[in-house]
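Ligand-bound model needed. fe (iii) ion.
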Amino acid sequence: MIKNYLHLNQLVTLKSAHEKDGRFLVPSDLDIIEDGAIVFDEEKIIWVGKTSNLPSEYLAHMTYNLSGFVLTPEIVDSHTHLIFGGDRSQEYVDRLNGTPYEEIAKRGGGILFTMKETLSLSSEELFCLGVKRVERINSYGVGTIEVKSGYGLSYAKEKELTLIIDRLKKHFSPKIQISNTYLAAHDIPRSFSSPTAYMNEVVIPLLEELASLKIIDAVDIFHEKNYFTSENCIQLFSKAQDLGIPRKIHADELNDNSGAKLAADFGCLSADHLLKISDEGIKILSTSKTVATLLPGTAFFLGKPLAPARKMLDAGVKVALASDYNPGSCHCDNILLVASIAAAQLKLNQTELWCGITHNAAHSLGKLDQGVLLPGMKSRFSLFQTNSLSQITYNWGKNFSVNLP
Ligand code: NIG
Ligand code: FE
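Prediction:
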Protein backbone atom coordinates (compact mmCIF):
# COMPACT_ATOMS: atom_id res chain seq x y z
CA MET A 1 0.00 0.00 0.00
CA ILE A 2 1.35 3.45 -0.94
CA LYS A 3 1.39 6.10 1.81
CA ASN A 4 2.21 9.83 1.86
CA TYR A 5 3.57 11.67 4.85
CA LEU A 6 3.01 15.40 4.28
CA HIS A 7 4.00 18.62 6.04
CA LEU A 8 6.78 17.10 8.14
CA ASN A 9 8.44 20.00 9.94
CA GLN A 10 11.76 18.47 8.97
CA LEU A 11 12.58 15.58 6.69
CA VAL A 12 16.21 14.66 7.36
CA THR A 13 17.36 13.00 4.14
CA LEU A 14 21.18 12.63 4.65
CA LYS A 15 21.45 12.76 0.83
CA SER A 16 24.85 14.47 0.72
CA ALA A 17 26.17 12.31 3.58
CA HIS A 18 25.20 9.25 1.54
CA GLU A 19 26.86 10.64 -1.62
CA LYS A 20 30.05 11.12 0.42
CA ASP A 21 29.87 7.51 1.69
CA GLY A 22 29.40 8.80 5.24
CA ARG A 23 32.87 10.41 5.40
CA PHE A 24 34.21 13.96 5.80
CA LEU A 25 30.78 15.21 6.83
CA VAL A 26 29.85 18.86 7.34
CA PRO A 27 26.69 20.19 9.01
CA SER A 28 24.86 20.88 5.72
CA ASP A 29 25.22 17.20 4.69
CA LEU A 30 22.11 16.48 6.78
CA ASP A 31 20.12 17.83 3.80
CA ILE A 32 17.04 18.75 5.77
CA ILE A 33 13.84 19.52 3.85
CA GLU A 34 11.49 21.86 5.74
CA ASP A 35 7.76 21.15 5.27
CA GLY A 36 8.81 17.87 3.68
CA ALA A 37 6.85 15.05 2.11
CA ILE A 38 7.70 11.44 1.42
CA VAL A 39 5.84 8.80 -0.60
CA PHE A 40 6.60 5.14 -0.07
CA ASP A 41 5.22 1.60 -0.07
CA GLU A 42 6.04 -1.33 2.26
CA GLU A 43 9.36 -1.88 0.52
CA LYS A 44 10.73 1.29 -0.96
CA ILE A 45 10.71 5.07 -0.99
CA ILE A 46 9.00 6.42 -4.11
CA TRP A 47 9.29 10.20 -3.87
CA VAL A 48 10.92 12.76 -1.51
CA GLY A 49 10.67 16.56 -1.58
CA LYS A 50 8.86 19.64 -0.36
CA THR A 51 5.15 19.15 0.28
CA SER A 52 4.42 22.00 -2.12
CA ASN A 53 6.14 20.08 -4.93
CA LEU A 54 4.32 16.77 -4.39
CA PRO A 55 2.95 15.50 -7.71
CA SER A 56 -0.84 15.50 -7.37
CA GLU A 57 -1.20 11.87 -8.53
CA TYR A 58 0.14 10.72 -5.11
CA LEU A 59 -2.69 12.46 -3.25
CA ALA A 60 -5.01 9.64 -4.28
CA HIS A 61 -3.12 7.41 -1.79
CA MET A 62 -3.31 7.20 2.01
CA THR A 63 -2.19 10.61 3.30
CA TYR A 64 -1.02 11.68 6.77
CA ASN A 65 -0.48 15.27 7.87
CA LEU A 66 2.64 15.15 10.03
CA SER A 67 3.02 18.79 10.89
CA GLY A 68 4.79 18.87 14.27
CA PHE A 69 6.96 15.84 13.50
CA VAL A 70 10.51 15.13 12.28
CA LEU A 71 11.35 12.11 10.10
CA THR A 72 14.90 10.70 9.91
CA PRO A 73 16.44 7.63 8.30
CA GLU A 74 15.86 4.75 10.69
CA ILE A 75 18.07 4.64 13.77
CA VAL A 76 20.16 1.48 13.94
CA ASP A 77 21.80 0.01 17.03
CA SER A 78 24.56 -1.96 15.34
CA HIS A 79 26.26 -3.55 18.38
CA THR A 80 24.36 -5.16 21.27
CA HIS A 81 24.80 -8.22 23.46
CA LEU A 82 21.18 -8.33 24.62
CA ILE A 83 20.77 -12.07 25.14
CA PHE A 84 21.99 -12.63 28.68
CA GLY A 85 20.81 -13.89 32.06
CA GLY A 86 21.29 -12.19 35.43
CA ASP A 87 23.09 -8.91 35.95
CA ARG A 88 26.52 -7.68 37.04
CA SER A 89 25.53 -4.92 39.45
CA GLN A 90 27.96 -6.31 42.03
CA GLU A 91 30.90 -5.94 39.62
CA TYR A 92 29.76 -2.43 38.84
CA VAL A 93 30.02 -1.61 42.53
CA ASP A 94 33.42 -3.35 42.73
CA ARG A 95 34.62 -1.19 39.85
CA LEU A 96 33.37 1.96 41.55
CA ASN A 97 35.23 0.82 44.63
CA GLY A 98 38.48 0.51 42.71
CA THR A 99 38.82 -2.92 41.04
CA PRO A 100 39.48 -2.65 37.26
CA TYR A 101 37.37 -4.55 34.66
CA GLU A 102 40.36 -6.70 33.64
CA GLU A 103 41.00 -7.70 37.28
CA ILE A 104 37.35 -8.67 37.81
CA ALA A 105 37.48 -10.80 34.65
CA LYS A 106 40.63 -12.59 35.89
CA ARG A 107 38.82 -13.57 39.10
CA GLY A 108 36.18 -15.41 37.06
CA GLY A 109 33.81 -12.48 36.94
CA GLY A 110 32.99 -10.64 33.73
CA ILE A 111 31.75 -12.55 30.71
CA LEU A 112 32.20 -15.94 32.42
CA PHE A 113 29.93 -14.86 35.29
CA THR A 114 27.19 -13.95 32.81
CA MET A 115 27.78 -17.26 31.03
CA LYS A 116 26.76 -19.10 34.22
CA GLU A 117 23.69 -16.89 34.71
CA THR A 118 22.70 -17.40 31.08
CA LEU A 119 23.13 -21.16 31.35
CA SER A 120 20.66 -21.24 34.24
CA LEU A 121 17.85 -19.84 32.05
CA SER A 122 15.76 -21.88 29.61
CA SER A 123 15.43 -21.04 25.95
CA GLU A 124 11.92 -19.73 26.57
CA GLU A 125 13.06 -17.48 29.42
CA LEU A 126 15.89 -16.05 27.31
CA PHE A 127 13.52 -15.49 24.38
CA CYS A 128 11.04 -13.61 26.62
CA LEU A 129 13.84 -11.43 28.03
CA GLY A 130 14.97 -10.79 24.45
CA VAL A 131 11.47 -9.72 23.39
CA LYS A 132 11.25 -7.21 26.25
CA ARG A 133 14.71 -5.80 25.52
CA VAL A 134 14.09 -5.46 21.79
CA GLU A 135 10.75 -3.74 22.44
CA ARG A 136 12.40 -1.31 24.82
CA ILE A 137 15.18 -0.45 22.34
CA ASN A 138 12.55 0.01 19.63
CA SER A 139 10.64 2.43 21.87
CA TYR A 140 13.52 4.94 21.44
CA GLY A 141 13.01 4.93 17.65
CA VAL A 142 15.53 2.20 16.81
CA GLY A 143 14.20 -0.07 14.03
CA THR A 144 17.25 -2.19 13.17
CA ILE A 145 19.10 -3.97 15.98
CA GLU A 146 22.18 -6.16 15.82
CA VAL A 147 22.16 -8.91 18.46
CA LYS A 148 25.21 -11.01 19.30
CA SER A 149 25.37 -14.44 20.87
CA GLY A 150 28.36 -14.90 23.17
CA TYR A 151 27.17 -15.74 26.68
CA GLY A 152 26.63 -19.44 25.92
CA LEU A 153 30.27 -20.42 25.36
CA SER A 154 29.57 -24.11 24.78
CA TYR A 155 28.50 -25.86 21.60
CA ALA A 156 24.97 -26.47 22.84
CA LYS A 157 24.32 -23.11 24.50
CA GLU A 158 25.84 -20.95 21.73
CA LYS A 159 23.70 -22.87 19.25
CA GLU A 160 20.65 -22.24 21.43
CA LEU A 161 21.42 -18.50 21.63
CA THR A 162 21.80 -18.18 17.87
CA LEU A 163 18.47 -19.96 17.41
CA ILE A 164 16.85 -17.61 19.95
CA ILE A 165 18.14 -14.59 18.00
CA ASP A 166 16.72 -16.15 14.84
CA ARG A 167 13.37 -16.58 16.59
CA LEU A 168 13.46 -12.92 17.67
CA LYS A 169 14.23 -11.94 14.08
CA LYS A 170 11.16 -13.79 12.79
CA HIS A 171 8.98 -12.58 15.67
CA PHE A 172 9.69 -8.88 14.97
CA SER A 173 10.02 -8.90 11.17
CA PRO A 174 9.36 -6.68 9.27
CA LYS A 175 8.67 -3.90 11.79
CA ILE A 176 12.01 -4.40 13.52
CA GLN A 177 14.97 -5.87 11.63
CA ILE A 178 17.30 -8.02 13.69
CA SER A 179 20.80 -8.86 12.56
CA ASN A 180 22.14 -12.14 13.98
CA THR A 181 25.85 -12.06 14.89
CA TYR A 182 27.68 -15.20 15.98
CA LEU A 183 30.06 -14.31 18.84
CA ALA A 184 30.91 -17.71 20.31
CA ALA A 185 34.50 -16.34 20.42
CA HIS A 186 33.64 -13.94 23.24
CA ASP A 187 35.59 -15.57 26.09
CA ILE A 188 37.25 -18.91 26.86
CA PRO A 189 35.55 -21.13 29.45
CA ARG A 190 37.94 -22.45 32.12
CA SER A 191 37.41 -26.03 30.96
CA PHE A 192 39.45 -25.35 27.77
CA SER A 193 43.24 -25.40 27.90
CA SER A 194 43.65 -22.50 25.44
CA PRO A 195 41.71 -20.17 23.13
CA THR A 196 42.87 -22.33 20.23
CA ALA A 197 41.42 -25.50 21.82
CA TYR A 198 38.08 -23.68 22.30
CA MET A 199 38.18 -22.41 18.69
CA ASN A 200 38.79 -25.92 17.36
CA GLU A 201 36.27 -27.70 19.58
CA VAL A 202 33.42 -25.17 19.64
CA VAL A 203 33.68 -21.98 17.58
CA ILE A 204 34.65 -23.39 14.19
CA PRO A 205 32.57 -26.62 14.15
CA LEU A 206 29.45 -24.79 15.38
CA LEU A 207 29.97 -22.08 12.76
CA GLU A 208 29.94 -24.78 10.11
CA GLU A 209 26.68 -26.21 11.44
CA LEU A 210 24.97 -22.82 11.77
CA ALA A 211 26.18 -21.72 8.33
CA SER A 212 24.31 -24.65 6.82
CA LEU A 213 21.11 -23.35 8.48
CA LYS A 214 21.70 -19.93 6.88
CA ILE A 215 20.72 -17.97 9.98
CA ILE A 216 23.93 -16.06 10.77
CA ASP A 217 24.37 -12.55 9.37
CA ALA A 218 27.98 -12.09 10.60
CA VAL A 219 30.67 -13.56 12.83
CA ASP A 220 32.46 -11.56 15.53
CA ILE A 221 35.39 -12.17 17.91
CA PHE A 222 36.85 -10.50 21.02
CA HIS A 223 40.42 -9.85 19.87
CA GLU A 224 42.17 -8.86 23.11
CA LYS A 225 44.99 -9.80 25.44
CA ASN A 226 43.85 -12.76 27.62
CA TYR A 227 41.01 -13.46 25.16
CA PHE A 228 41.49 -14.28 21.44
CA THR A 229 44.72 -13.87 19.48
CA SER A 230 45.32 -12.61 15.95
CA GLU A 231 45.78 -16.25 14.86
CA ASN A 232 42.35 -17.09 16.30
CA CYS A 233 40.85 -14.17 14.35
CA ILE A 234 42.53 -15.29 11.14
CA GLN A 235 41.18 -18.81 11.61
CA LEU A 236 37.62 -17.56 12.20
CA PHE A 237 37.67 -14.98 9.41
CA SER A 238 39.15 -17.40 6.86
CA LYS A 239 36.45 -19.94 7.67
CA ALA A 240 33.72 -17.26 7.51
CA GLN A 241 35.06 -16.04 4.16
CA ASP A 242 34.94 -19.62 2.81
CA LEU A 243 31.34 -19.88 4.00
CA GLY A 244 30.39 -16.47 2.56
CA ILE A 245 29.59 -14.96 5.98
CA PRO A 246 30.48 -11.29 6.74
CA ARG A 247 32.93 -10.50 9.53
CA LYS A 248 33.10 -8.11 12.49
CA ILE A 249 35.67 -7.69 15.26
CA HIS A 250 35.96 -6.29 18.80
CA ALA A 251 39.25 -4.51 18.13
CA ASP A 252 41.90 -2.43 19.90
CA GLU A 253 39.68 -1.85 22.93
CA LEU A 254 41.90 -2.28 25.98
CA ASN A 255 45.20 -2.58 24.06
CA ASP A 256 46.34 -1.82 20.52
CA ASN A 257 46.60 -5.28 18.93
CA SER A 258 46.54 -4.11 15.29
CA GLY A 259 42.88 -5.17 15.20
CA ALA A 260 42.04 -2.40 12.74
CA LYS A 261 44.52 -3.86 10.24
CA LEU A 262 43.10 -7.36 10.68
CA ALA A 263 39.63 -5.94 10.05
CA ALA A 264 40.70 -4.25 6.82
CA ASP A 265 42.69 -7.29 5.65
CA PHE A 266 39.62 -9.51 5.98
CA GLY A 267 37.14 -6.95 4.63
CA CYS A 268 35.27 -6.83 7.94
CA LEU A 269 31.97 -4.93 7.90
CA SER A 270 33.12 -3.17 11.06
CA ALA A 271 35.85 -2.90 13.66
CA ASP A 272 34.29 -2.01 17.00
CA HIS A 273 35.50 -0.18 20.17
CA LEU A 274 38.95 1.09 18.99
CA LEU A 275 39.74 3.00 22.20
CA LYS A 276 43.42 2.24 21.62
CA ILE A 277 43.61 2.36 17.82
CA SER A 278 47.04 3.48 16.55
CA ASP A 279 47.70 6.18 13.96
CA GLU A 280 48.62 3.38 11.59
CA GLY A 281 45.26 1.69 12.28
CA ILE A 282 43.42 4.95 11.56
CA LYS A 283 45.25 5.31 8.25
CA ILE A 284 44.37 1.76 7.26
CA LEU A 285 40.66 2.17 8.10
CA SER A 286 40.46 5.50 6.26
CA THR A 287 41.13 3.76 2.93
CA SER A 288 39.04 0.66 3.67
CA LYS A 289 35.31 -0.05 3.50
CA THR A 290 35.33 -1.23 7.13
CA VAL A 291 33.17 0.95 9.38
CA ALA A 292 34.70 2.02 12.70
CA THR A 293 31.96 1.47 15.26
CA LEU A 294 32.54 3.51 18.39
CA LEU A 295 30.86 2.47 21.64
CA PRO A 296 31.28 5.52 23.85
CA GLY A 297 28.84 4.25 26.48
CA THR A 298 31.37 1.53 27.33
CA ALA A 299 34.24 3.97 27.85
CA PHE A 300 31.91 6.17 29.99
CA PHE A 301 30.77 3.22 32.08
CA LEU A 302 34.28 1.78 32.56
CA GLY A 303 35.76 5.25 33.17
CA LYS A 304 38.24 4.87 30.30
CA PRO A 305 39.49 7.50 27.84
CA LEU A 306 37.29 7.72 24.74
CA ALA A 307 38.27 6.58 21.23
CA PRO A 308 40.13 9.21 19.15
CA ALA A 309 37.00 9.95 17.13
CA ARG A 310 38.02 13.35 15.79
CA LYS A 311 41.31 12.00 14.48
CA MET A 312 39.47 9.16 12.76
CA LEU A 313 36.81 11.39 11.24
CA ASP A 314 39.36 13.92 9.99
CA ALA A 315 41.31 11.10 8.35
CA GLY A 316 38.18 9.99 6.47
CA VAL A 317 37.26 6.91 8.50
CA LYS A 318 33.59 5.93 8.19
CA VAL A 319 32.37 6.12 11.80
CA ALA A 320 29.23 4.63 13.38
CA LEU A 321 28.04 4.81 16.99
CA ALA A 322 26.36 1.95 18.83
CA SER A 323 25.29 1.13 22.39
CA ASP A 324 27.23 -2.10 23.15
CA TYR A 325 24.31 -2.88 25.48
CA ASN A 326 25.52 -5.73 27.74
CA PRO A 327 25.37 -6.60 31.44
CA GLY A 328 29.01 -5.79 32.19
CA SER A 329 30.83 -3.01 30.41
CA CYS A 330 27.80 -0.95 29.30
CA HIS A 331 24.45 -1.54 30.93
CA CYS A 332 22.64 1.04 28.80
CA ASP A 333 20.33 0.14 25.93
CA ASN A 334 19.68 3.66 24.61
CA ILE A 335 21.90 4.53 21.64
CA LEU A 336 20.25 7.93 21.23
CA LEU A 337 21.12 8.86 24.80
CA VAL A 338 24.69 7.58 24.36
CA ALA A 339 25.07 9.51 21.09
CA SER A 340 23.61 12.70 22.61
CA ILE A 341 26.21 12.69 25.37
CA ALA A 342 29.04 11.39 23.19
CA ALA A 343 28.72 14.00 20.45
CA ALA A 344 30.12 16.75 22.66
CA GLN A 345 32.78 14.48 24.18
CA LEU A 346 33.95 13.06 20.84
CA LYS A 347 33.58 16.47 19.15
CA LEU A 348 31.16 15.29 16.47
CA ASN A 349 29.16 17.71 14.36
CA GLN A 350 25.41 17.09 14.05
CA THR A 351 25.72 15.26 10.73
CA GLU A 352 28.41 12.95 12.10
CA LEU A 353 26.14 12.19 15.05
CA TRP A 354 23.06 11.35 12.95
CA CYS A 355 24.91 9.63 10.14
CA GLY A 356 26.71 7.57 12.82
CA ILE A 357 23.48 6.13 14.23
CA THR A 358 21.64 5.71 10.92
CA HIS A 359 23.49 5.49 7.59
CA ASN A 360 26.93 4.34 8.76
CA ALA A 361 25.46 2.02 11.38
CA ALA A 362 23.30 0.37 8.71
CA HIS A 363 26.37 -0.01 6.49
CA SER A 364 28.24 -1.67 9.37
CA LEU A 365 25.59 -4.41 9.15
CA GLY A 366 25.92 -4.69 5.39
CA LYS A 367 22.58 -2.92 4.90
CA LEU A 368 23.47 -0.54 2.09
CA ASP A 369 19.89 0.13 0.99
CA GLN A 370 18.81 2.12 4.05
CA GLY A 371 20.09 5.06 6.09
CA VAL A 372 19.18 7.73 3.53
CA LEU A 373 15.80 9.06 2.41
CA LEU A 374 16.01 8.81 -1.37
CA PRO A 375 13.73 7.13 -3.93
CA GLY A 376 14.61 3.46 -4.35
CA MET A 377 15.95 3.08 -0.79
CA LYS A 378 14.18 0.94 1.82
CA SER A 379 11.20 2.49 3.63
CA ARG A 380 12.87 2.47 7.03
CA PHE A 381 12.43 5.66 9.08
CA SER A 382 12.28 6.97 12.63
CA LEU A 383 9.57 9.50 13.53
CA PHE A 384 9.82 12.04 16.37
CA GLN A 385 7.15 14.29 17.81
CA THR A 386 9.02 17.58 17.82
CA ASN A 387 9.56 20.38 15.37
CA SER A 388 13.31 20.19 14.90
CA LEU A 389 16.04 17.57 14.80
CA SER A 390 18.17 19.47 17.26
CA GLN A 391 15.51 19.09 20.00
CA ILE A 392 15.97 15.31 20.01
CA THR A 393 19.57 15.21 21.23
CA TYR A 394 19.52 18.62 22.92
CA ASN A 395 16.98 17.10 25.33
CA TRP A 396 19.29 14.17 26.10
CA GLY A 397 17.49 11.23 27.63
CA LYS A 398 14.02 12.51 26.68
CA ASN A 399 12.14 10.23 24.31
CA PHE A 400 10.43 11.94 21.33
CA SER A 401 9.99 8.75 19.29
CA VAL A 402 6.50 7.77 18.11
CA ASN A 403 5.22 4.83 16.08
CA LEU A 404 4.91 5.32 12.33
CA PRO A 405 1.29 5.72 11.24
O1 NIG B 1 31.76 -5.31 23.92
N1 NIG B 1 34.30 -6.78 24.91
C1 NIG B 1 33.60 -7.79 24.95
N2 NIG B 1 32.29 -7.80 25.06
C2 NIG B 1 31.53 -6.78 25.69
C3 NIG B 1 31.62 -6.88 27.15
C4 NIG B 1 30.84 -7.97 27.60
C5 NIG B 1 30.75 -8.12 29.09
O2 NIG B 1 31.49 -7.51 29.87
O3 NIG B 1 29.87 -8.91 29.43
C6 NIG B 1 31.88 -5.44 25.14
O4 NIG B 1 32.20 -4.51 25.86
FE1 FE C 1 30.64 -5.64 22.44
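Residues 195-213 form the longest helix (19 residues).
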